[in-house]
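Appendix B, record 7
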Amino acid sequence: MIDGLLLVGAAVAAFVGFNIGGSSTGVAFGPAVGSRTISKLGAAALFTGFAFLGGWTVGRNVIQTMGGEIVPASYFTPGASIGVLFFVGLALLISNLFGVPASTSMTAVGSIAGLGIASESLNWPVMGRIVSWWLLAPIIAFWLCGVIGRYLYPHLEAWFAVDASVGAVFTIDQSGLLPRPRAAPGTSRREAVGGVLVIVIGCYMAFSAGASNAANAVAPLVGSGQLSISIGIILAAAAIGIGSFTIARRTLDTVGNDLTDLPLLAALIVEVVSASLITFLSSIGIPASLAVSATMCIVGLGWGRASRTVRLSDMATAAIDGETSPNTSMNALASNGGQSDGSQSVANIGEEEPGELMASDLFNPKATARVITLWILTPTISAIASYLLFRFVV
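Structure tokens (predicted):
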């Protein structure tokens, strides 16, 4: 009977990992695929490898937190492990129906918390620490990117903006014993360096995703003792890899083609900041959402870029006098479409015209509100459903 439950639990864990790979690959390598720097096959291979590396190293801390610190490991019976994983999969289904990427980390924690409350075994200090970081991390992401957008982004754009190439950036030279990547005909050195940068950052994002998300698939099984932590990571990485090579092709198309409103330079800044934040949280054992952090990075970067039309002293004066703040636009990250050669001048703060920063919309406020609402609802629903199941049924 236990062997049968283990088989079911492994299957549910694989399903969760499969969906994680399908959604996270596009987030990590969408810019690289969209700019024709790497193929979908290459993106899937790199994502699988670096996600496994992230899970095998930093991800162990998250697995230990979710598999035995939120709720004692003794409460993760085979049936409870399956129930927890079921609600994670249910959240993925709900998010897909609404077209919103769910935070699997937050949903998994919510499901485990429901088990803990029902069994009166929830470690409230650990839960409070996790929720505190959930509230703090988006704020940090917003302000970090806000500062970058206000003070650094225009200079970065003028100095070494990375523009998407019209054709493929690299080709594969198969003339030798081993295939080797080479710059495609017509690719400039600047484009080649930018292409390498896009791929490296994509690998970093994959590492961060693996560190944070491997626990979502296998932590209950590891906590119950049905799987060792190493076998659990291998199972999660294998399932994530299958998702990367299959259903991720659509998310790669979506993310790559939707970057017209978010220039490649801005996308890379968002990826570096959000991945660094999640990697840090994973290193201290905090399960957190890469999607939430990335979204707040986008909003913060856009706000910071748009706020360059107004000096801080002017905004403070307007606030004290009760006047409406000077107009700033959240549509401020659109690229001018030209190749930067480092000679472009950057206007001082307060000297840029608002009209110059309205080339296209950065994000839709209504859509953003819908995304944030679902990010709050999915772990809440998961926690309530888990509580009801373990309190009155199991």
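Remarks on this record: The chain has a mean pLDDT of 78. The longest strand covers residues 170-173.
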